[in-house]
Design a protein that fits this description.
Distance between the termini: 39 Å
Bound molecules: alpha-D-galactopyranose
Number of helices: 15
Shape: globular
Helix content: 10-25%
Length: about 850
């Protein structure tokens, strides 16, 4: 609900949150409040301030306003008419420099006269019944038309500029999003140096800024930083939203836990360079901002033009991080993901990359596909290596024509054969790139981003196409459409494998040369944002032309995992790291801000190709099953025993797919982040097993079914009792909880076999291996019926773990990286 009290105060409410701001006598907007509902009553919409309801609401907001009698010492007084106000010590909805606020501004311009001061004063406000569709940039949407919008307009009269702040209220998920738009009403160009999407001025210091930082194969590691003074920021300058720092961040008191305490969460619907910053002022106020990274950014706003900042998302919860995550998950699922796949079950896939890398051919792929079919795979994906002369990563990007030596029947020939096996077929592409060794580069060298006449730095032996150029956008749209229509393609993995360097758009330079009279010239600091706008145009067009295709985003794994990509592609390859332990960290990181229905995860070979770590197949399955599930390993080479186990896994996954893909996700204890700097954040300190145990539970929306996993990092000697605590069940519901009956390889017990064998068996000897074929060690299992409350509060006390004193089927074989999955069904 949105209330506009006579253009004097504004209250945005969702069932569990409220956000309020009010007009200051100076004409600026004072931020009053963001948190639990205010319960002030009154109708929705415009409320006359003179009416009983209006005056009542204004009076009720009075305690939330700061009372200013004199400006602080040595501060700049805003104007003679308001000597008590210094903007430096006000909580502002949006700030600009030059009039006394010395903190980081949200907006920074160079005006037509070269001056740097801005002063935007309230003009009007309008409530719009539904969320308007976005223009150039993606944004949230509402299918039911139930998201309300408040647009507030400001004018900088002296500099002839209009600023619009829009607020969108999503009641179903307790989310409010915001955006900002600047319009040049004057006759001279204006230079935009910074235009942030969201500013939130909170009235105290001491928040913990939680971000998710990382690197290739180590994405989304939680990082907690306490803010008492100065400025802290995370962001990206790589051209993509990046694995260095995801745009999703949180602010919270230091005692907030997974299920208790307050937390603010923020995200940005943008895939390029971004910045999230928090600054504690000398007066102890915290200013949070998110938007396009001003470093390396600049934009020339010609007369009559406007600039839209990307939409930013915010939520508040008093139910800890899990409470916030549930709001964010619902928001992403309902108001970001679009199209046919929004609520459609995702198929179990098999991807060729870690199975064969570039060494693919029709016969090799068919062998893999047949093994996949036998195991229950539904979608077969051919990864890199199928086009041009692509035998390694040094060539052919841009030449999207099938390599007939590898695939004599073309894409269609292979797709038909895969379809005949009863599986869907998908491919890998990396359309934003161009190899110097390619036909495309020979034909169109000026389509690559590069500074004419200067050496270019490379990443993965490839260049980035100049997506600012409409001709390049058209080429990608047409060429990809041709590829996607050339066979029965049901899935596309869209990759992007290098950061920007020498970011220069030859097209923009040519535009400048052609428009001599348009001064000042459009600088190359526009290029990164123009690239992202070009990318969005391409994605929008291709997803509209091919609505049946399931698109999966990828950028060397999670180097561009953000709400901009998710506005077009419903899922993203979360990391090139498929190691189950690493994924335990990485997927936990994603789960704070993103639903598992967009986090793609595969079971891969052992030892793992990124870490050379050996983890049990059961754990690789369990961890991947909580994301969008598939396999990426050479099935054709696996022993029958492993293939049988995989077949059982896939059957089980299909049975529980709808709960796993669409249920509500809860974090229990976490490993915390990988302790890269000796510090691990988020490891549920003070709880037994903290940092060594991971627990996830996913619960169907009617709370009738749930799946849980408990995983251990390292065995703690003589630590034999573990409990699994499910979450999200109906406390009063009666549930059947059960595990899987499993058998373990005798060789896992090494020469302990001699404690029971009638004859001596040398460990790893021929006889040991032969024996292991026939003798399996029975494992423990669990089965119980209890109430949701008992299970959630008391926990399932699992059978005793092996502790060096004896083994039977009443003992849990729980080695390093082991897990147990539990299945929970309401039993009334
Ligand atoms: C990137 C992706 C991988 C794989 C390779 C192919 O690294 O993240 O999954 O597709 O490219 O070259």
């Amino acid at each position: 609900m949105i209330q506009n009290v006579g253009n004097k105060a504004f209250i945005l409410s969702t069932p569990k949150t409220a956000y309020a701001f009010a007009l200051l006598p100076t004409g600026h907007l004072e931020h009053l409040y963001y948190g639990a509902p205010l319960q002030l009553g009154g109708p929705s919409g415009f409320i006359d301030e003179a009416s009983a309801e209006g005056s009542c609401l204004l009076a009720a907001l009075e305690p939330l306003r700061e009372k200013h009698a004199f400006a602080p010492g040595t501060s700049v007084i805003y104007d003679q008419g308001h000597p008590q106000y210094s903007l430096d010590d006000m909580r502002l909805e949006y700030s600009a420099p030059g009039k006394g606020d010395l903190r980081d501004p949200a907006l920074e311009l160079t005006n037509a006269d070269g001056s740097l001061s801005s002063d935007f004063i309230f003009e009007s406000a309008e409530i719009i019944g539904e969320k308007l569709p976005f223009k150039a940039l993606p944004g949230s949407y509402s299918e039911e038309g139930d998201a309300q919008q408040l647009c507030v307009s400001f004018l900088d009269k002296e500099n002839k500029l209009k600023l619009e702040l829009c607020y969108y209220v999503f009641e179903d998920c307790d989310v409010i999003s915001r955006s900002a738009r600047l319009v040049n009403l004057g006759d001279e160009p204006v230079s935009v140096r910074r235009i942030m999407s969201l500013q939130l001025d909170l009235d105290r210091p001491g928040y913990v800024f939680t971000g998710f930082t990382g690197a290739w194969a180590r994405e989304m590691q939680r990082t907690d930083t306490l803010l008492n003074a100065g400025r802290y920021s995370l962001g990206s300058r790589s051209g993509a939203s990046s694995h260095r720092a995801n745009p999703f961040v949180m602010l919270h008191p230091s005692d907030t836990t997974e299920d208790r305490g307050e937390v603010y969460g923020f995200n940005l619907i943008y895939s390029g360079n971004h910045l999230e910053s928090a600054e504690v002022s000398p007066f102890g106020k915290t200013r949070f901002m998110t938007g396009i990274n001003p470093e390396g950014f600049g934009w020339t706003l010609q007369p009559g033009e406007d600039f839209e900042a990307p939409e930013a998302v915010m939520a508040w919860s008093s139910d800890g991080f899990n409470g916030l995550s549930r709001s964010m998950h619902r928001f992403v699922r309902e108001h970001i993901i679009r199209g046919e796949w929004k609520h459609k079950d995702r198929p179990v896939l098999l991807n060729s990359w870690e199975a064969a890398y570039f060494d693919i051919s029709e016969s090799r792929l068919m062998k893999l596909a047949k093994a996949g079919k036998d195991a229950g795979i539904e979608l077969f994906v051919m990864d890199d290596g199928w086009f041009g002369e692509r035998n390694d990563d040094t060539s052919s990007l841009g030449d999207w024509n099938v390599n007939k030596k590898k695939l004599p029947g073309g894409l269609k020939g292979l797709a038909d054969k895969i379809n005949a096996l009863g599986m869907d077929f998908g491919i890998w592409v990396e359309p934003e790139m161009i190899s110097e060794k390619s036909e495309l580069y020979r034909k169109h060298p000026n389509w690559a981003m590069q500074i004419p006449g200067k050496d270019h730095s490379e990443g993965r032996n490839q260049r980035i196409l100049d997506l600012a150029n409409p001709a390049v956008q058209d080429f990608i749209i047409d060429k990809m459409s041709e590829v996607f229509s050339s066979a029965n393609i049901s899935y596309v993995k869209w990759d992007m494998n290098r950061p920007f360097s020498d970011a220069f758009s030859p097209w923009l330079a040519a535009q400048n040369a052609a428009a001599e009279e348009a001064r000042p010239l459009r600088g190359q600091s526009e290029t990164p944002h123009r690239y992202i706008m070009g990318l969005y145009r391409i994605m929008k067009e291709l997803t509209a032309r091919h609505p049946h295709i399931l698109f999966e985003g990828c950028a060397s794994g999670g180097n561009r995992f953000d709400l901009g990509i998710l506005s077009y592609f419903p899922q993203i390859w979360a990391s090139d790291d498929t190691d189950a332990l690493a994924r335990g960290f990485i997927q936990t990181g994603y789960s704070y801000g993103y639903p598992m229905s967009c986090v793609s995860a595969h079971v891969s070979a052992r030892p793992n190709h990124q870490t050379l770590r050996n983890t049990p197949l059961e754990t690789r399955f369990g961890v991947a099953a909580f994301g969008i599930f598939g396999y990426e390993m050479n099935f054709a080479d696996l022993p029958a025993e492993a293939m049988n186990a995989i077949k059982v896994q896939i059957e089980l996954y299909k049975k529980w797919r709808s709960v796993l893909q669409w249920g509500d996700f809860y974090r229990g204890r976490s490993f915390g982040s990988m302790p890269v700097s000796g510090v691990s954040a988020g490891a549920s300190a003070g709880i037994p097993g903290a940092g060594n145990i991971l627990e996830w539970t996913v619960v169907s929306s009617d709370r009738s079914k749930a799946v849980g996993i408990i995983m251990q990092n390292q065995v703690l000697p003589n630590w034999q009792f573990h409990s699994y605590f499910p979450k999200g069940l109906d406390p009063a519901g009666i549930y059947l909880l059960y595990g899987r009956k499993r058998k373990f390889d005798l060789r896992n017990f090494g020469d302990l076999v001699n404690t029971v064998a009638p004859v001596h068996i040398k460990s790893e000897s021929q006889i040991h291996h032969i024996l292991a074929r026939f003798v399996k060690m029975d494992g423990e299992t669990e089965e119980c019926i209890s109430s949701g409350a008992a299970l959630m509060n008391g926990g399932l006390h699992m059978k005793q773990a092996f502790g060096g004193t004896g083994y039977s089927e009443e003992v849990r074989y729980f080695q390093d990286y082991a897990c147990r999955m539990y299945f929970i069904e309401r039993s009334e």
